[in-house]
Structure formats: C-alpha cells, structure tokens
Amino acid sequence: MFHKATKDLAKQLAPDGDLLPVSSLIDQDHFRPLYLVRRKPKRSWMTHHRYYKTGVRLSDILVPGQDSRNLDVQDSHTITVKDCSDGRVEWTIKMPEDFVSMEVTGAASTYQVKSIKMKTARVSPAALEILPKERKINMDHSFIKDLRKHRENLYVINEAVQALEETTLYKANTMEGNIRNDICVHFSLKGTRGSKSVIVIPKDCVLAFRIKPLIIQSESWGISHHPNEETFVADGVTAESDYFPDGGMEGLQSDVEKECAELSQLSTDLRAKFLKSIIAVIINSDLLQELKLKLEEAFEDADKCELKSENPDLEDLLNNVQDSEGSTHLYLVGPVLYTLHALGELTEDQLLRLAQSVEKQIVSKQLELVRENASEIQHHTAQ
C-alpha cells in the first residue's frame, strides 16, 4: 500500500518520471538528500531503472578537507495532495435451463482516502558544484573499491519529498454475493467479504526523491546533469551499457529461460508450492512488495538475512529458498526476484487478468497469440 501511494504521488507531482518513489517505509531514511543510491541494469521489459539504497552518505566517501562543513539542505514550500475515491458496481446473472433456475447477484465497492501534506528538501546546486573543489574522493574506501570492481553506477540524492506531518492512508474493499438456485429444493446462499488497509506515515518520512549521477575519475569527482552518465567513465564502458539489447519476443523469451532455468529444474511438487506463492502476490500488491523486499535483502546479504513471514501464502516459498540451517539458496532467490520484478511492471488490472489466466490455465495459449501477433507486426514492418 505504501509503495502504491508513493508511486501515485510521484506520478502526480512529476509526470515526466524524474521523481522516484520510495518503495519501503522501513528503508525511507536511506533516501534523504546526500545519501547515495545504486542502479541495477535495466531489462528490456522494464519501464524504469531501479535504484537501491546503500546506507552511505556522500560525506562518508570524501577525504576530510580544510572545510569539512556539511552541505545545507533547504526546505521548500508546502504541497498538499488530496485524493478520495468511492465506487460501487452491481451485477445480476440469470441462467434458466429446463427445470433448473439459477440467479447470481453480486456487488463490489471500494473506498480510498489519501490526503498528504508534503515539503521538498533539496541541496543547493551551487553547493554541489563547489564541494568537489574542496574535498576529494577516498578511492581506498571499501565501498568505492567494491563499486569499481563490479562497475556499478552511483547516484547522489539531491532532492527529497517528505511528509510534513503524520498521515494515515485508508483503503477499504467490500464484495457481496448472492446465489439462488431452484431445482426441486429451493435454496440460496449469501455472503459478504471485506478488507481494510490502514498505514500510518510518520512525520518527515521520505516519499520520493530525485538524483544526480556521481562521476569519479581518480581522486576527483563531480555531479553530472546527464541522467545516463556513468560513474567510472575513465575505466571504459560498464556492463550496464549493453546489458540486454532489445531482441524482440525471441530475445525476451531467451532472457526469461536463462534467468529462470533453476526454477524449471525443481520437482513438480516444489514448483506447485512456488506457483501458489506467486499467484498470491499477483492478486495482492502489498504481498508482492513484501516478498520482493525480503528477497532483495537476502540477495544483498544472505548471511545476515532471516527469511520469515507471518503470511501463510509466502511460507512455502520462503522455507524452500533456504536450507534447514537457514542458509539462503541464492540460485533460487535470483530467478524468483526476476519474476517479481517483472510482475512489478504490471498495473493492478493487468495483475488481476494474469491471475485469472493462470487460474484458467490459458497463459500458454495467450503467449502463443502474442508470438503470432508480434511475428505479423514484424513482417509488416519489414515490408
């Protein structure tokens, strides 16, 4: 729910997409101005790059200079976003057939309230221009050495959108159903199902942020205004630059088969357990985010991460990506994370349709239709 709220806010405040939503309420402190973030390589099916916390501030990797003052972070004016939605849908289906008569009625309603007062905290561009002249990069810092070894790009947060006061987000869904069946015996069934989600966002919580690429050459460094600039440009082209060229449908299928090869080797029973968890997160975006964050943490530091969840839908999957002693099987975590990131690119409506297709076991047929359509489009384009 938190991630959906921050995504909606970022889109409302900056439709051009340069304002990045914070995905986790727990990690929001690591996305304040002057913190550093990493960027993972972008797949062809990703609409946006993904940025990850480092827990490291810009000052942590600089050599102390004569002027080791902290950069000022300035607050801007207040911004308020109000969003209240209320909807209800009703339907009736009658199915008479000879001596059997059945009537199905149903209704679904949703109610959502979101009102957030925010402020923008930003670092002065002039201050960021002056700092590289006063302090050099510590190239012996273990963090810099590791980044350079793996050729990863680094970014500094120069602006953050924060909650001005404690805020409560509220969402409720209700579904009602009634089945009346007349055969020789009259009977009817009626039921109501509801769900409520409430999340409290603390004061000063970071909701979204903007970044600038950090450029490092020997001990000198600087801030770039070009979003695709590489951090260690003097070392040559990074692996990210040509990570995954768009090879169309065939290229995408090849990439999926490569990344998910370990899952195809699992037993039928284990694959069924994994699929059960995947279906659960498809129909519950909050669950999807929870599982993704847990596995990302495990992938980054398998020794310190304990994979547990109170949700029974995730229990089978989490139990089977680690052994009896609690050691994480990274060869399984990787493919599952790949799948979750792909699902994260879909809207809620698309996820719901996918869940229905999986339940009806028609995904293979739909994929075949997509291949045929893609082939026809490619053929017409070539003419």
From TrEMBL:
Keywords: Cell membrane, Cytoplasm, Lipoprotein, Membrane, Necrosis, Palmitate, Transmembrane, Transmembrane beta strand. One of its GO terms (molecular function) is phosphatidylinositol-4,5-bisphosphate binding. The keyword Cytoplasm applies. It is found in: Cell membrane; Cytoplasm. Its main location: membrane. Pfam families: Gasdermin, Gasdermin_C. InterPro entries: Gasdermin, Gasdermin_pore, Gasdermin_PUB. GO terms for biological process: defense response to bacterium; programmed cell death; pyroptotic inflammatory response. Residues 1-229 form the Gasdermin pore forming domain. It is a multi-pass membrane protein. Residues 250-372 form the Gasdermin PUB domain. One of its GO terms (cellular component) is cytoplasm. The keyword Lipoprotein applies. PANTHER family: GASDERMIN, GASDERMIN-A. Belongs to the gasdermin family. This is Gasdermin pore forming domain-containing protein. It comes from Gopherus agassizii (Agassiz's desert tortoise).
